[in-house]
Amino acid sequence: MNSLKHRATTVCLIFLLFEASCYTEFEITVPRDTLTGFYGEALILPCTFPVDRSWDLKSTVITWQRGLDVVHSFYYSQDQLDRQNRHYVNRTSLFVQEMARGNASLRLDKVTPQDTGMFTCSVSTNTGSQKKTFGVKIAAFYSEPRLQFSMLTDGVNLLVTSDGGYPSPTLQWLMGTSDITDQTQTRLMQDMETGLFNVSSWMNFTKVTNSSLTFILHNKPLGQDIRRDIQLCSGEAEITVPRDTITGFYAEFEITVPKDPLTGFYGSQDQLDRQNRHYVNRTSLFIQEMARGNASLRLDKVTPQDAGVYTCSVSTNTGSQKKSFGVKIAAFYSEPRLQFSMLTDGVNLLMTSDGGYPSPTLQWLMGNSDITNQTQTYIMQDTQTGLFNVSSLISLPKVTKRFLTFILLNNPAGQEIRKDIQLSSAEFEITVPKDPLTGFYGEALILPCTFPVDSSWDLKSTVITWQRGLDVVHSFYYSQDQLDRQNRHYVNRTSLFIQEMARGNASLRLDKVTPQDAGVYTCSVSTNTGSQKRSFGVKIAAFYSEPRLQFSMLTDGVNLQVTSDGGYPSPTLQWLMENSDITNQTQTHINQDTETGLYVVSSFISLTEVTNSSLTFILHNKPLGQDIRRDIQLYSV
User: Fold this and answer.
1) Which of 237, 355, 427, 599 is deepest in the core (most CB within 10 A)?
2) pLDDT at position 487
């Protein structure tokens, strides 16, 4: 074997950077109007900045503040939260994977009234800096009002309560068309922990006559108007009272007398040994009011089985008498729910409402024309509660621009529900990316999907489903996430932008993406105006690390090995000597990490004779457009 002469080989890595730039004014963009967030939900605070090819993450500084409080900071390519105000701990995040596209928006989770204020977005990059401020207000819907009716010695008291809302509402009372708000008293209390308001409004009547009252609650920031009618009747008629304080439905009741005594009172106390078991623990008298001649009966938790004629018998030391009167039971039907489904030759509209009594009268109008005879109606009675569930279906052979009205009448309760449905001839079309979407390993990926909305859009009738093949990624219906059928691969990694649905946003956020998330995703959307599903591809990519050069002497030459790792997918490698491709003289090993799915690539070449020459190593990661080119200069000494 010939021994090599004393020679030394010097290896130099030469890095050449090419930049191009042009001057433009650095201008960030934030909302011009005040942004409204929904209590307890996540709120996206938009902020974008200009980027060009010279943009560099390492030189990017993003700071969000509310007044002097630091909400979120980002620099040195990562979050910097040591100065973050403790009010925002674990509630803020930036869209790091979107920064290269100029996205400095902030996601603020679980917003509360304490988050109201002026927020400032400050952005500094290698091309400029600016900060801008905009307002944020938080709002919460008030609950369904609850009516409490109580007898006074000289009249009646009506109390309406609603809670869990923000900000403070505007209340109004009407008698007929006359405003009587100044005759009422209102108490407003704020929960010290949540910041939400509880409101109570009441009024007293010294004399009950046949009259119609209207209670109105207005929550301006959300455009929430709650209007509840209350019918007062003189004589034997009952006022409208809640059937159940939990459901918030108002009902008017008529009860019947059974053969057995409903309740008995003598010997200065209740005597219930002969009470019919149907009424056990549901009846009481106003003993403290008897001295004023009050023998009224309170009957709790009334049901349709309580309907009939009741007899009140009174005997005192001055005389005795009994009288009977009829009372009926009624329960308000729930807010109708519209289900819209496309047929091959038309469209189906299904309207459902439940929990009402007695059986209602239904009507459908198209414009001013009655089309009820073109519909099918199904009424079912719950054997346990006695309440009715009603479904009404109409099939239209062709969708054109039409105006429909659904009417439900519950005469005993004085309930009339009218729902307008606007049909458009425009095709229901959802929008997803045309080209495959690329996500960055370990980051969050937004899968865009939008759908058309109009003034008739209803969250309760909206169904959104995301799938990858047959696997359920995320489901949303009945106004909330439904994740019992979610594939376990996606558990705790998916979320929808619920506060954006009213603007047609059905996009999915998928956190901590990995190569296993690659595939074809389908977004399915169904609303009260149409339904459609569309698919698009998702691929995951990861940048390869800076190549590492290992140089070793052989007995008959020199060995060069270049290694790079943490990338995806498998790269394309090329070696050049001067301008000649010598890739076929190299050996390459590519290994995939079984846990992360990322690749480690090693490529080496052995040279038996070292002369002054220039080698070039090229690694190409096509999905990310990543080209790593490293020059290696060999010298013979």
Assistant:
1) 599
2) 94
